[in-house]
Amino acid sequence: MPQDAPLERLLDFLRRSPTPWHATANMAERLEAEGFRRLDETQPWQLTPGERVYVTRNDSSIIALQLPSEPLSALRMIGAHTDSPGLRLKPHAPQTAAGWLQLGVEVYGGALLAPWYDRDLGLAGRVHVRHPDGRLEGMLLNVDRAVAIIPSLAIHLDREANSGRAINAQTQMAPVFLQGGESADLDRLLRTWLAAEHDLGDVEIVDFELGFHDMQPPARVGVEGELIASARLDNLLSCFIGLEALLDSDGTQGAVLVANDHEEVGSASACGAQGPFLGDVLRRVSAQLGDGSEEEFIRLIQASRMISCDNAHALHPNFLDKHDAAHGPALNEGPVIKVNANQRYATNSATAALFRTLCQEAEVPVQTFVTRADMGCGSTIGPITATELGVPTLDVGVPQWAMHSIRETAGAKDVAHLTRVLTAFVDRRELP
Q: Are 74 and 304 in contact (CB under 8 A)?
């Protein structure tokens, strides 16, 4: 199949981002390579019109800003989230059974559990260590090889396995880790892996936030490479596309890319969309480039627009009845405007009209998703950001299959589709 540079960058980003902390670090690395300057929230800021900056919080959420040379009057905001459902280690994870050291897990978010069985699992996340001099330091860890597995029970021992058997996350999801191992082995292995990855000496493991991840690499799938299959497409795909659009833009307009952590668990955290991170940053920007008044800040927010990007449910060929007949988005047929009358999505006719206009100008097809009236509807950062900040917002996304599975599927063409629309949005001089 032909090589596609953006898709190759996407696959590499997905492979190197097994956790929100890694995704944020990789986004920050690319921003710095493109000339963005890192800001520290604990220090005074000196901002200059026309420069590009970024800031992180909790090492798992990131905001990138493109400041216009002209007076700041409106911002083109793109929102996404860095976290994905999965299995996180409990603080006292080691447990033994049948001669095996297993690791107790907690389910993060609304994970589809069955696909986690019989997968080669790596381990990744953030670890805080104490150095011999007493200094505490947080470090990223990515054990990029198969170190665990959750074996299925043979069908011979469970003849009802294909009849909708429930999965108990407490008793049936602990990965097998080390034969004959003991509790102390986890600490020893973490120190060994950290030392190898960071060239460390002797350190003490103080605490960690770790989770398992699928070792099968992202891939183009289909006879003609029509599909992308990977873990964490929801929502690293939107993070990648938003970053591509910001970097592809002409750099003349005020723009923001925000990628929050904790969307999959409700966004209620210091670095989540329901927290103060975006508001804190924008108030400091407004104070630096304006008079700092609350009136000026509100005027800026009301003149701005937010496109919240989170993947949409594509029409599944084996489950056609799960969609409203008139609202079944197809893979590779363009981005999806997500609508819900009960405000589970932030889209309204005004913000949808803007997005449809952008799609028309970029010559990109556009689709619409509304859930069936007899089914519940998920949500995302769009309504939360609109509520917290007051910015006019809409929710869109690339259509995908198998949302919240350990391996999800999207259309390869839709990466370019949404990137073109978001680039046009960032470049647009006038916002309705």
A: yes
Q: Which domain holds residue 239?
A: 5-84+231-427
pLDDT tens profile 102-134: 999 999 999 999 999 999 999 999 999 999 999
48-104 per-position pLDDT tens digit: 999 999 999 999 999 999 999 999 999 999 999 999 999 999 999 999 999 999 999
* DSSP per position, 189-213: HHHHHHHHHHT--S-EEEEEEEEEE
What's residue 232's pLDDT? 98
CA dist 85 and 210 (Å) reads 13
Domain assignment present for residue 224? The answer is no
Q: What would the pLDDT profile of 360-413 be if each residue is shown by its tens digit?
A: 999 999 999 999 999 988 889 999 999 999 999 999 999 999 999 999 999 999
CATH number (domain holding residue 49): 3.40.630.10
> What pTM did the predictor assign?
0.96
Residues 6+ apart with CB under 8 A from 33: none
Query: Coil, strand, or helix at residue 379?
Result: coil
Per-residue 3-state assignment (H helix, E strand, C coil) for 33-92: HCCCEECCCCCCCCCCCCCEEEEEECCCEEEEEECCCCCCCCCEEEEEECCCCEEEEEEE
* Whole-number percent of the chain with pLDDT over 70: 99
Is residue 223 domain-resident?
no
Shared-domain flag, residues 72 and 99: no
On whether both 75 and 138 belong to a single domain, the answer is: no
Residues in the chain: 432
Name residue, tokens 């800031």.
55
Contact (Cβ atoms closer than 8 angstroms) between residue 226 and residue 406:
no
- 203 lies in the same domain as 280: no
Neighbours of 368 (CB within 10 A): 18
| Of the candidates 128, 143, 141, 144, the residue with the CA atom closest to the CA atom of residue 208 | 128
